[in-house]
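::Amino acid chain::
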Amino acid sequence: MTESLSAGDFSDYLSKLTGPIPYPLTNDYMFHMVFQNAQDVLKGLLATLLEIPPEEIVTLDLLNPIVPGETVDEKTIVLDLCMELNSRKVIDIEMQVANKGDWVNRSVFYACRNVAASSLDKGDNYTELKTAVHIGILDFNPPDIAARGALYTQYRLMDLRTFHVYSDKLSLNVLNLSYLDKVPEAERQTDLYKWASLFHAKTWEDLKSLAKGVNGMDNFIFTMAKLSEDDKIRMACRAREDYERDLSTQYSSGYNEGKEEMKEQLEEKEKAIEEKDRIIAEKEKQIQQLTAALAAEGKNDHSDI
């Protein structure tokens, strides 16, 4: 998207990008569209997340491109980045900002779906099975304890006793953006930290500062800015924000309703306990009075003798 500008005009355009980013990379529609149009940068991201040298990425085919501005239907359009790497790996990267309470099961389903997508045809050799990788970029605290305590977590099939990896054909990875502030200072110079920070950037100034020295990032930022100016893209991004906001509201409402219901149940139980305590106290008082009366009667009987 840079051919129409001279080098000078291109630099001038980037220098004028200031203030809040209308739709940052945490917007899953913008996330998909930017990387769809900047695959050189996508290769850099993949190299970091898969922990491989960039030169090992020979071919990268996006399996689910989106027509710019196309109306998003949850049932027909997948906003994850689904791709095939070197014809050997099927990779799915998902940007998720709303905690829907189903992340663990969702990620397992997506990973297994990738395995099914790369399934063998009748007569194929099992050695031809492709590796399936699901990478979740989460902007909320993950439900799994291991993922909560790290910026990046990778899960494999392994033996629980010896921790021997059974197979690397299935992988579940989580990039936890909510952990950014907790990353030790010594680890903040890594490419992984820079990428996580890029996803969290809210202003053009922050994005440009973080992108310095990263190959292809000027074109990446230019692409993102131009997409942000497109009315159809903006409408699609806004629709995604509204959708995620509604989901978050519903989730919060359900949580608050459940919390209120739990509070009422606890109050009822506390009242029942208080009533039992009152009855027990009365019974104990009656027992004490009866004991005292019996003791007094016994004394009177002895005095008559």
The two ends are 118 Å apart (CA to CA).
